[in-house]
Amino acid sequence: MLQNAVSDLRPPLTVPNSLDQDVPDIDYINEYLAENEHKELLKFLTCGSVDDGKSTLIGRLLYDTNKVYEDHLSALLRDSSRLGRTDSEPDFALLADGLKAEQEQGITIDVAYRYFTTRARKYIIADCPGHSQYTKNMATGASNCELAVILIDAQNGVLDQTRRHSLIVSLLGIRQLIVAVNKMDLVHYDAAIYERIQAEYLAFAKGLNFTSVSFVPVAAKFGENIVEPSVNMPWYEGATIVDLLEAAPVAVARDLGHFCMTVQRVHRPGTDFRGYSGTVTKGLIHPGDPIVVLPAGIETHVERIVTMDGDLDVAHAPQSVTLTISDQLGVNRGDTFVSPQYKPQIGNELFTNIVWMNNKPLVPNKSYLFKLGAKQLSGKVSTIVHRLNVNTQVLEPCDELAVNEIGLVHIDLQQPVVYEDYETDKTMGSLIVIDRITNETVGAGMINHNLSSGASNR
Amino acid sequence: MSAAYKLTHLEQLEAESIYIMREVVAERERPVMLYSIGKDSSVLLHLAKKAFYPGKLPFPLLHVDTTWKFQDMIAFRNRLAAQGEFDLLVYTNEEGRENDVNPFDYDSDTYTEIMKTDALKAALDNYEFDAAFGGARRDEEKSRAKERVFSLRDKYHQWDPSNQRPELWNLYNSNIRKDEELRVFPLSNWTELDVWQYIYQENIEIVPLYFAKERPVVRRQGTWIMVDDDRMRLERDETPQMRMVRFRTLGCYPLSGAIESTADTLPEIIHEMLTAETSEREGRLIDHDQVASMERKKQEGYF
User: Fold this and answer.
1) By Cβ atoms counted within 10 A, which residue in A179, A184, A189, B134 is the most buried?
2) Same structural domain, A10 and A135
3) Would residue A229 count as lying in a domain?
4) Number of other residues whose CB lies within 10 A of the CB of residue A236
């Protein structure tokens, strides 16, 4: 059905091909590009236990939204026969499972990013593995997403893995959830089973911070309720997965009140120019506006907003710009420019929820590097306040955090930093922990000073 | 930028790429940009100029020259370098050149390994670069979809897909040992359409081979191969013929397939891309050699 570039050894054609393709209408292209340009972007992650059919669901999403190009499908068909899969339907999971090792084991072992576009939106999927030992990858995927699709196998119901994943996405600040109850075809499309799972999940999720939880019964293998509604589940009158994705509110950085930009790099290309490069994380800034350099607390004014496309009259989030200021100050990488009325927190002791990601456990009083914004600082965890049991949601005392464990800790840094609670500001409230010897990223931290709202941020 | 203080999709991608490049330059001592002369490299170069304006690029460009690139590519590269906005390093595997390693006598795997992968690794070692920007996108190929933006390579320049660092928020970890290096991919989140649209919007210059023109070609393995110079070895039954063709990806000319097309403007190319039924790597014979070939090449140190 598809042309295989390697096997096609036809002799050269002697008759010139007709080149009478329509010359495209330039206006149509410009219109299309303008429409494309203004589409909203939604980043979401998918997670589930092993064999929940996550890769199949993603393969279906891509396939059914016509994003899967023909030669990828051709490669898929070749791969299917090489691995001896004999299903008459193509194995859609092979579209999503990229690495050779994964194909042979039939599981997903790392976060993969997928891209697809509908008429309304552009999507980036962070496809996250379900194995417990790969929880670090799930937190990785969740950190940049606004919505999560959690898969539950209708045959198994809500598992410990489901609870763990839900807890992690909640902890990482995701507030919108779609629960896809998959493999409905294997439970005779039974509405009672779907409703029982829904009730069980809702009882559990009450304790989490989701603002919206939607349920969809699906059979990913056959594309039922993914893009097209299912004919086998007339009892379900709700939206399909794609309908829900298209309708999900997209958070846009609209905090225009407080200007904030961390200095990423002091830019001195010659003797006569000194600028401060960075990405505006919130608010607006104009030439002439007063700013305060934190943590020093020195006030100055913005002179110019310099870009290659010319100086700007205003800069806003999330633009990457270079500012010049009216005073000669000792500003360094990692310092923060803010508007004078904005008072973020400053300190060197942080209560932080940590997801530990390394086989060597987190040990109190060991020296680590902490990266916040553009700063890398030495410090240590002075106390582990408690560990969160992700299966029971009980807070337990502990001496160390093992890989894939989550706990609330108290961090002592050698210098003060500018920060916010993660709940208020993901950029200023997040940090990573780096092992000084191996250089590995060993932990992910979400600052949580507002302990009165529940120490575990649940 | 619009009055509503909302960035368009491309402006968001641009801001993210600039952030990534500045982060590397702030944290690493000896970065380099891998420059393949292709359209993604052109976008990367344009973004780098924006990231470090005003001023020259704070790192050189490295072109690994297999000696089998299209003449148009080399002319384009040399003309850009002559403008003085960046330093250009060109590196060739001299042992391979002396022994006439070429894409006709060697299978494409061996040829690529000697003239591209080995040459790249030798160049990185020779200049002691500790971070190398590449133009790879995650939408290009399955194994690339799983690679981090900051991708760690060991002292043999190898990628270990099962042992990647977690990468959260925009807090990139660039800490490495002296014998290790980073490959950094600022275009990770761009799609092929984004790249073309950005080239169109920003009026970025690209190699003329992307635009349709009558060129001398022969039909091989289901695609059109251009007879770019007299080193091209023709089969007995092959006669070069003039065809309106263009290239969707560029590499070594004997290994790069052209498509028949009349698209000689960017809107026409974008139109063709939108209606195309094959993804861009189809034109590269190099990827078809075996399943998971890109994954294996990455593990060996090729991009």
Assistant:
1) A184
2) yes
3) yes
4) 21
Chain A CB contacts of B258 under 8 Å are none
Q: Does residue B170 belong to the interface with chain A, where contact is any CB pair within 8 Å?
A: yes
Q: pLDDT confidence of A154, banded at 50, 70, 90?
A: very high
Residue A454 CA to its chain's centroid (Å):
24
Q: Could you give phi then psi for residue A376, rounded to 5 degrees?
A: -115, 120
- B107 CB near a chain A CB, below 8 Å? no
- CATH number reported for the structural domain that contains residue A439 in this entry: 2.40.30.10
At A64-101, the pLDDT tens digits run: 775 444 444 445 545 544 444 444 556 666 655 555 55
For A:377-416, CB contacts with B below 8 A are none
Give the H/E segment covering residue A105.
helix A100-105
Q: Are residues A300 and A374 in the same domain?
A: no
Residue A265 pLDDT more than 70? Answer: yes
Which residues in chain A (297-356) have CB-CB distances under 8 A to chain B? Answer: 306-309, 312, 314, 316-320, 322, 333
Q: For residue range B30-63, list pLDDT tens digits in order.
A: 999 999 999 999 999 999 999 999 989 999 999 9
Q: Which of residues 5-24 of A touch B (CB under 8 A)?
A: 5-13, 16-17, 19, 21, 23-24
Q: Is the same domain home to A211 and A328?
A: no
Domain finish residue from A279, A306, A338: A338
Domain range enclosing A285: 260-338
> Who among A24, A144, A439 is closest to B268 (CB)?
A24
Q: What's this model's pTM, rounded to 2 decimal places?
A: 0.88
Mutate which of A17, A95, A254, A265 to test chain B, going by most B C-beta atoms within 10 A? A265
Length of chain A: 458
Starting at the earlier edge strand, list the strands of the sheet with A112-117.
Answer: A112-117, A121-127, A40-48, A147-153, A176-182, A212-217
- A11: closest chain B residue by CA: B219
